[in-house]
Amino acid sequence: LRNRSIIVIFSKLDELLNELKHNKKTAGDNNISPLLELTVWMDAAMSATTDGPILLVLTHADRVPSKRDRQYVSDRLDELLQQRGFLSSRRLVRPEDSKMVYFPVDNTQSMQDPGLQELRNCLQRAAEQSPSVKQPVPLPLRLLQDVVSSVAQPVMDQVNQFRAVDSAAIEAAIRRVRQRRGAQSTDCLPHIELSDLAELYAVCSSKPMPSLQDKEFRVYVDFLH
Hints:
single chain, mainly alpha, 3 strands, 49% helix
């Protein structure tokens, strides 16, 4: 979960109806009810991010053909969201020309489903309006991504893998990072530290080692995330 992201939260319409209207809770793989799981994800989205649209998508709408039942679920969710202060942020995106707070998706109609079509159109509009879409992407980013991926894997013969820059310097930096993290030649490295990334960035961009607060370096870090 990051700022400027388009956050889509899924749940099953039929299970929410059973819980909200009939008090029949269906515990999922994590042994929590659909309503509680939905609330947890909404809490996480609101606490971890400060901007970006949030969409609720309820699948298996084909199991709830009644418009009255669908609206009942929407009204109850609307009450819950208002109580928890979700709606005051104006981040929740509703279907156009609809009184519901969620996008119903019929699992039997594929792309012919009007709900799925409306969801796709809404996601397209949200993406076009997102500041991230207009943010320039540094051209050397792909090289840095490839280098970071190479750090994670066991060191193999990497001759001519990085032709755009000094491949020997890059391979040496990869080996230094892996050695610092205690990775053996056949080990996959689960993570590196920000200081390691700064060294790789310097080699890929042919620039001096940046400080960890360097603005240009942090742009690369954000893109990698």
